[in-house]
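pls read this protein.

:::
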Amino acid sequence: MRVRAFHLKLSSITAPPRAPTLWGHLAWWVRYTEGEEKLKEWLEAFQHDPPFLLSSAFPTGYLPRPYLPQLQVEDTQARKALKKIRYLSLKTFARVIQEGEQALRDAPELKEGKAPKVTLASQTRVGINRTTGTAQEGILFTDRVYWLNDKAQQQTWTVYAQVRQQADYLEQVLREVGTFGYGGKASVGLGRFEVVDTQELELPEAENPTHYVTLSPTLPQGEGFYALETYWGRLGGHYALAETPFKRPYLRAVEGSVFKEKPKSSLLDVTPAPAPEAGVRVWEYLYPFCLGVRI
């Protein structure tokens, strides 16, 4: 599949960037820069013929390990090492989607431990006195943040876009989102990133696929091999201060989930009760970003 890749250099973040939240930032950018009527037109396009599809972000050069029938390994250490592998290089991914997990037996991710690792850590910050603008004595907060296991701090993350219609604004929006912060805790300095490069490339797909792996969260549909999570996101923009600041919860399949048929998910209505504003509907982006897999 031909895609446009956006390479991001991340600071500390509360969670790796994911397609629905990135799309939400794009929606608010349209609202604040081009107005409410333009946003309605943009949302209408995504209801029927989306101008582009977004993936979640993954370590550059890697994709999520597909949820496939597991490889049976007798050696305990090898089995534990195999279980920890979360990301596959593009080369290994291309083999796995064609040959199955059997291809992992001699993959560098298992043999040499070359798969990137994401570490969950704690970051402490001081409380701020909003009157004086200075640190407040005796007040400390601890935030949960994610770090790549990258001592040289050279590892970037990549978001892929399958562009169907002209969408030249994508790079600009991602740069602005990175400046102001992505996701939770952006107001206290987390979630910053920089777009360091963009390129056109081909993502691997299996010949004559029998199934499809998604690179973005989507609604579970039909037969397949997938992991589920319950999600209730927070409203963005000025709706973050609404009476009910959280979206309606729902169940979704995570990145790497595999389906026998391409899911037909699009936008999901997650408007809370009461709505943040009269007549407003809140939408969650759940289009699958599919690559062919052969099982």
In short: Residues 205-295 form one domain. The mean pLDDT is 88.
